[in-house]
Write a structure and sequence with these properties.
The structure holds two protein chains of two kinds. Chain A is mainly beta. Helices cover 14% and strands 47% of the residues of chain A. Chain A is elongated, with a radius of gyration of 17 Å. In chain B, a hairpin with a 2-residue loop joins β32 and β33. In chain B, α3 runs antiparallel to α4. The chains are: A mainly beta, B mainly beta. Chains A and B meet through β1, β3, β16, α3 and β17 of A and β2, α2, α3, β7 and β14 of B. β3 of chain A pairs antiparallel with β2 of chain B.
């Protein structure tokens, strides 16, 4: 199940999970049991906090997964940086490609892993929150197994969008339409910003 | 539910006011995603008090369930205008939020892209390829449409397509192909610098309710799913045709017989009144102009139609009261479509058409008006022909209007009007004293409303409430010279008024992906008012050799009413993936005869392979005697019991690839309990058929129609062709002898091709051949009148011989139409020239008969020929 929250954040919930969300002018807070992948819209003045029984995850804008069970809180970061804190008050920062595990006893474990392999359950979902096209290109390459030829001056252009099981042609077409640049999709290549 | 964007409402709720239980949000999103319709038409509910635009867009996205994609670089830190966006659509909200941003919303089914507004530029070519999801091969014969422009083309055998130059801009392309899942609106593309476009279709079994289980279905201007041997909308417009008439264009489909004069269709050997005709869910009664002159045109503007399907191989249970088939017409879609207008003029009429939207695209309207000016054309022709003895002034008009509103994602309501009328005057004089005059005034008004409600994702209910009023007035006289001062005369005053009120409801419940339940019913209340007077005199010879003028009158004034109720239920199941079965029954009650009858039906479709499908049907079809069908002019005042037809059909269709498709079908229909029909077997078109010498009461014991149809067709980008052959027989058992029906065509061969040498030109040629129709010889009785041994008079009486005991010569003709399109600064201009019967074949409608009397005098009954070479032309400007 994928939902868009009122602040623009996109959340995919795993089966059997529950999420509550509340927001006001100063904060955005979510309470999670189970497992969810977050694509948080960046807001410098309004952090996004995910609460679980074992700890909380605080971000400004990023993409990450939170998995919570009775004896472990696991946070996997794809993009941006998050801060995870336990009930003891201890906290740690987690960077892209890193995974933090927080046990019921309050122990932290920070490792660098193949995060995409850990996120196999959310296959089909692509979430971009003001994401640069250079990052988008990498994501498309990973997701669809195609080479993306991105015109150099477009690397910093950003998009906000999410896709759920759409085919490559449709994803590329939508991205290029909102950015306002021509694109071509060949069998195993994508040209963004120029015709082939 | 409100999703505030700034702090004010939140403070009212003590700081945390937006508490969402996620499961509720999920349910909401699912429901909105499943609902059909334009993303811009979805409801939204939020407030924005000059918050950052990105926040307002996020709130809109959350409240509507519609994904919104954009580039933050094109928005920067812009603030959104204040918007109390309560009970609005996504489109309405975006109109407010995007004002002045240079962005415009591009709707997708459940997503809206905020794209930069295109800069005006010159026209560009739009071309591309449609490929299979495996990317290995192109898909030939796929239909590609530019939604905003209403343009569509078919791909060539390599899957390539090309539109003529279109104005630069953003367009939605849709692609459909048989055996592939359609992807309407899922393939947006931008023409500037983006060609060629690549569209991908996924081979997939059709949803259960999309599977065509009935054989004998032919689509015309169809959108989805594609059927082999269909006529595309473009092909329809390019086909040679008289009067731009949708009925006449269908004569090119296998199994359909017409004559040149009438627009009525005889499907698979059936009488023309055995075809059920529907428009946007409502049944049409007598939808023909000039019904007193053999119904020369249909009342529906072909340019206002999106799709037409002809179902000739057995009807599903939801359709009934007709034995032969269903002609189902649907008008152009209007919701979410651009505003467009067109003006057209041809040799037969002027046409105005307009469509547009309202309510931020949630609603749309369509109006089509036609005025036939055959009266002016004929007046000019008569002026040029000083010897003309006939004055014929046919005037006709029709108005078709529709308003449609997507009231919510699950409710669609519509209102429709079809109003048609004729005013026909005919005056004929032939020296010395033969004369006839006729004036008819005919009107057909249909008003109906539709409501479609998706109660749940698997449950849909559609309701149609309709009212119709037909009125006719036919007055005139006919005088023919004879041995005495007059040999025969008639004075006719025929008036009729018919009213119908119908309520219909259809339910569709998807029990699971493999089972679908259909149920519904209809109630119709009908009244008729017949006022008929006929005074007729005819000479005859008495036993003692005297001539007497026998006078006869019919004076009928009856006002029957009828209450007709129908209920049906059917189940469609897929017990095994390639096999789809549908079985059901309908019950029809008719108060005019006190009957209640059950008609069971079975249909099946079996996919032998991805390219080959077998379809079969068996069913009983009953046809009641409607209140408007009483032949009062022939003296009938009571209704006859329902007729019954039992039909079996079996068809195989195969897609050879490379755009080549073939179909072969066999059918057999046996009819019993026929009611009497009154025929003018001499085929002469006369003002008062009921007084013709060739009028007979025809009541067979039973009937049968059998045949085998084959068709092979190929479509490609620049060239299309098809070959069809039908072997058929349609007969009635009369006095122990099987007698062929009037339009029985033993062998029918049809060839047609469409060439597009360039984007601006289309050339279509059609040739058809069929065995000669049966013909009834006329017999002549000659009485010589003598007074005191001297011949002083001869009376020749004409009467029909054995019905349909002879055959006319074979019929064939070649038609051609050339169409040229110009792209103008403001719209497009289409011009066509159409040549009917190019080599001027003299096809006979009836034989000549002549009697040479002993005196050397010749009494002749001149035979009639069908239409000669007939060039017409027309212009249409779309803007």
């Amino acid at each position: 199940m994928t939902v868009a929250l009122a602040d623009g954040t996109v959340v995919r919930l795993a089966a059997g999970s529950t999420l509550r969300f509340a927001a006001d002018a100063e904060r955005r807070e979510a309470w999670l049991t189970g497992r969810a992948f977050f694509g948080v819209r960046h807001e410098a003045e309004r952090p996004f906090v995910v609460h679980t029984d074992l700890g909380q995850t605080r971000v400004l804008g990023t993409r990450f997964e939170v998995r919570h069970s009775d004896d472990e809180l696991r946070v996997v970061v794809v993009e941006g940086r998050v801060s995870v804190s336990g009930s003891s008050g201890r906290s740690t920062d987690v960077n892209p490609g890193q995974v933090v595990r927080l046990g019921a006893n309050g122990d932290f474990s920070l490792t660098t892993e193949d995060v995409q392999a850990l996120l196999d359950w959310e296959q089909g979902l692509l979430v971009f929150q003001a994401t640069p096209l250079s990052t988008v290109a990498d994501e498309l390459d990973r997701h669809f197994g195609v080479g993306v030829d991105l015109r150099a001056d477009l690397a910093e252009r950003r998009i906000t969008a999410w896709f759920d099981d759409e085919p490559l042609e449709e994803v590329v077409s939508s991205i290029c339409l909102v950015v306002g640049v021509p694109c071509t999709v060949d069998r195993d290549s994508v040209f963004v910003g120029a015709s082939r | 539910m409100t999703f505030p964007v700034n702090g004010f409402p939140m403070r009212l709720a003590h700081g945390l006011i937006a508490l969402l239980i996620c499961s509720l949000a999920v349910a909401s999103v699912e429901a909105q995603t499943a609902a059909s319709g334009d993303a811009l038409s979805r409801p939204a509910n939020f407030e924005s008090q000059r918050a950052p635009l990105v926040e307002a867009l996020a709130a809109l996205q959350a409240s509507s369930g519609v994904r919104i994609a954009f580039s933050p670089d094109l928005i920067q830190d812009r603030a959104a205008p204040a918007c109390r966006c309560q009970s609005v659509t996504v489109g309405e909200a975006l109109t407010v939020l995007l004002a002045g941003t240079g962005l415009t919303p591009m709707p997708m089914p459940d997503q809206v892209l905020l794209v930069p507004e295109p800069e005006p530029s010159a026209s560009v070519a739009l071309e591309g390829v449609v490929v299979d999801a495996d990317g290995a091969h192109g898909i030939g014969g796929a239909r590609v449409e530019v939604r905003e422009l209403g343009l569509a083309v078919l791909t060539d055998s390599n899957g390539r397509f090309r539109f003529q130059p279109v104005p630069a801009g953003d367009y939605h392309l849709t692609a459909q192909a048989l055996g592939y899942r359609s992807v309407p609106d899922r393939q947006p593309t931008q023409t500037e610098g983006r060609s060629p476009v690549r569209l991908t279709l996924t081979r997939s079994p059709l949803a259960l309710n999309e599977i065509v289980v009935a054989p004998g279905r032919f689509g015309v201007m169809e959108d989805a799913p594609l059927m082999p041997q269909s006529l595309s909308r473009e092909e329809m417009q390019a086909l040679p045709q008289l009067g731009e008439d949708v009925f006449r264009s269908l004569e090119r489909l296998p199994g359909v017989a017409t004559d040149d004069i009438s627009a009525k269709l005889n499907v698979r050997g059936a009488n023309s009144d055995e075809l059920l005709i529907m428009l946007d869910g409502a049944e049409l009664i007598e939808p023909y102009h000039m019904p007193d002159l053999d119904a020369v045109l249909g009342v529906v503007d072909v340019g206002a139609l999106r799709g037409v399907s002809l179902l000739a191989g057995g009807l599903p249970v939801e359709h009934g009261d007709r034995m032969a088939g269903l002609l189902d017409m649907r008008t152009l879609p209007v919701i979410g479509r651009d505003t467009r207008h067109s003006i057209g003029i041809s040799a037969s009429n002027v046409t105005g058409r307009s469509q547009g939207t309202f309510g931020q695209g949630r609603g749309g309207w369509l109006v089509s008006v036609r005025r036939g000016f055959l009266d002016l054309v004929l007046a000019l022709a008569n002026q040029a022909d000083e010897n003309a003895n006939d004055e014929l002034s046919p005037r006709y008009y029709d108005v078709l209007a529709k308003v449609e509103l997507l009231a919510s994602p699950r409710h669609r309501v519509s209102g429709h009007v079809l109003w048609a009328g004729d005013d026909l005057g005919l005056a004929t004089t032939e020296p010395p004293s033969k004369r006839a005059s006729l004036h008819t005034d005919w009107s057909n008004l249909n008003v109906w409303g539709g409501w479609s409600w998706a109660m749940r994702d698997n449950l849909e209910v559609s309701t149609v409430l309709s009212g119709s009023r037909l009125t006719r007035a036919r007055t005139g006289e006919w005088v023919s010279p004879g041995a005495s001062e007059v040999a025969a005369f008639a004075d006719v005053d025929d008036r009729g008024a018919f009213r119908f009120a119908t309520l219909r409801q259809d339910w569709r419940l998807g029990l699971n992906p493999k089972a679908l339940l259909k149920a519904g019913g209809q109630f119709r209340w009908s009244t008729a008012d017949y006022q008929y007077f006929n005074a007729m005199g005819r000479e005859s010879v008495t036993a003692d050799g005297l001539i007497e003028l026998a006078l006869d009158t019919i004076n009928a004034s009856i006002a029957p009413t009828a209450r007709e109720g129908t209920g049906y239920v059917a189940a469609r199941v897929q017990p095994w993936s390639p096999l789809t079965l549908e079985g059901g029954a309908r019950y029809d009650y008719r108060s005019q005869t006190g009957e209640g009858r059950v008609s069971p039906r079975l249909l099946a479709a079996f996919e032998l392979s991805e390219r080959t499908t077998v379809r079969a049907s068996w069913g009983q079809h009953r046809q009641s005697h409607g209140v408007e069908e009483l032949s009062v002019v022939d003296g009938d005042t009571t209704f006859f019991p329902s007729e019954l037809a039992e039909q079996v059909a079996l068809g195989v269709e195969h897609d050879f690839g490379q755009g080549i498709q073939a179909r072969i079908e066999a059918y057999s229909r046996s009819t019993s309990d026929p009611r009497p029909r009154y025929l003018n077997v001499g085929r002469e078109i006369i003002p008062f058929p009921e007084i013709g010498n060739d009028r007979v009461r025809f009541l067979p014991d039973e009937g049968r129609a059998r045949g085998v149809q084959t068709i092979l067709a190929r479509v490609s980008e620049r060239r299309e062709w098809s070959v069809s052959y039908t072997l058929a027989a349609a007969e009635d058992l009369v006095d122990g002898r099987w007698t062929p029906r009037a339009l029985d065509q033993r062998h029918t061969l049809g060839l047609r091709t469409l060439l597009k040498p360039s984007d601006d030109w289309a050339l279509s040629v059609g040739w058809q051949f069929h065995s000669g129709w049966p013909s009834t010889p006329m017999e002549f009785a000659v009485d010589t009148l003598r007074t005191e041994g001297e011949l002083n008079g001869i009376l020749v009486a004409e009467r029909p011989g054995p019905i349909n005991s002879r055959r006319l010569p074979a019929y064939h003709r070649l038609d051609l139409r050339a169409t040229r399109t110009w792209t103008l600064e403001s719209g497009r201009l289409h011009a066509f020239i159409d040549v009917f019967n190019l080599y001027n074949r003299q096809n006979l409608r009836s034989y000549d008969y002549a009697v040479r009397l002993p005196s050397g005098e010749v009494v002749a009954n001149p035979g009639e020929t069908l239409l000669p070479l007939l060039p017409t032309f027309g212009l249409t400007w779309e803007f």
